[in-house]
Specification:
- The chain has helices spanning about 1-15, 15-30, 55-60, 70-80, 100-105, 120-140, 145-155, 160-165, 170-185, 200-210, 230-240, 250-255, 325-330; strands spanning about 90-95, 100, 270-275, 285-290, 295, 305-310, 315-320.
- It is of the alpha+beta class.
- The strands form two sheets. It has a five-stranded antiparallel beta sheet with strand order 6-5-4-3-7.
- A hairpin with a 4-residue loop joins strand 1 and strand 2 (about 100).
- Helix 10 packs across helix 11.
- The longest helix has 18 residues, at about 120-140.
- The two termini are about 40 Å apart.
- The relative contact order is 0.16.
- The model is unreliable at about 1-40 (pLDDT under 50).
Length: about 325
């Protein structure tokens, strides 16, 4: 992978001078950046949780030391994509995907209105946090990280965590723990600069080669589509060219890594646009940043892949794609 990055960087240097100066200059300035999410109080990244649920997640995510708002958000996103009407083939329901038996035992009246409604986020989100904390109390004496043990208990049961004195050696459970703790970084507000992506220059090189290609709604760049793309099809293909698998739609691509501030953008960051700046689920457009305030994007029907400015009123935010972050994203959402 590193070899591909170096080769692609050289290829960019032989291409359009506009991209060359932006990419190489910005990367030279990025050498001293440090990793993102640090210790201390955990806040939520801008708009990562829909505004209607953000106060609930922020409040109940601090219910006990084993959880935090970003972790709770990661669980809700992984379970339902923040869809309060979601249902799964396993007969799990609502934004937190409780099954009826677990809800009967652990559902709480979070909003104090006298009932416990599995479909109501005002009850289901507090119930998810309460259930996490209850599981954490069951495995509090197990060695190891309290949060990982809690997540393992959520997946495999508290007895397995106690028996194995920590996260049990089950592949499904270990994958679940890694998935949620990785997604947590996508929902946490960074407390410092985030590490540059080594795949970024090659992803830009791929997008650069597509400049001038006509836009196609739903386009993935396949031969039967004439090699045409829509916005998220282009960014997905650009990162697929370096072995990073992104989801198909822009609002899920937003959760593929941590979120740098506007003045911390580096080439290769994905940049997002929305008519609702409080809700990442409403994102409607994405491009790949090349530096100097510009991106390469597939803007709309009738247009071609081109350079466009980033600083517009509908600019939502950015994501620095990571391999683990992309891999952790759900491959499919529960049914409505």
């Amino acid at each position: 992978m590193r070899k591909a990055w170096i080769v692609a960087g050289s290829a960019v240097a032989g291409g359009t001078g506009f991209v060359t100066l932006l990419v190489l200059g910005t990367y030279m300035a990025a050498g001293s950046l440090t990793n993102g999410v640090g210790q201390g109080a955990v806040g939520l990244a801008k708009g990562a949780v829909p505004a209607a649920y953000q106060p609930l997640v922020q409040k109940w995510g601090n219910l006990c030391p084993a959880i935090n708002p970003a972790l709770l958000a990661a669980q809700l996103y992984q379970e339902s994509g923040f869809n309060p009407r979601a249902k799964s083939p396993a007969k799990a329901y609502g934004i937190a995907q409780f099954i009826i038996g677990t809800w009967a035992a652990h559902g709480v009246d979070g909003d104090g209105d006298g009932d416990r409604d599995i479909w109501d986020p005002n009850d289901a989100i507090p119930s998810a946090a309460s259930y996490d904390c209850k599981l954490a109390s069951y495995v509090k004496d197990a060695p190891g990280d309290a949060t990982k043990n809690m997540l393992a208990a959520y997946n495999a049961g508290a007895y397995a965590v106690i028996k194995y004195k920590g996260v049990p050696p089950y592949r499904e459970t270990q994958n679940y723990v890694k998935t949620i703790t990785t997604l947590e970084r996508s929902f946490a507000r960074p407390v410092g600069r985030v590490q540059p992506s080594q795949q970024a220059a090659a992803a830009i090189y791929y997008a650069q080669k597509k400049l001038g290609t006509p836009y196609l709604w739903g386009g993935n760049g396949t031969a039967d589509q004439g090699g045409r793309f829509d916005c998220s099809g282009l960014t997905k293909a650009a990162y697929a060219s370096v072995g990073v698998g992104l989801p198909r739609v822009a609002n899920d691509q937003y959760n593929a890594g941590p979120h740098p501030k506007r003045d911390e953008l580096l080439p290769g960051d994905l940049v997002f646009f929305s008519d609702d700046l409080s809700n990442s689920r409403a994102i409607r457009h994405v491009g790949i940043y090349v530096g100097g305030g510009y991106m390469i994007d597939a803007p709309r029907s009738g247009a071609v892949i081109r350079f466009d400015p980033v600083d517009t009123p509908d600019y939502f935010g950015a994501t620095r794609v990571t391999e683990d972050g992309a891999r952790a994203l759900p491959s499919e959402s529960p049914e409505v």
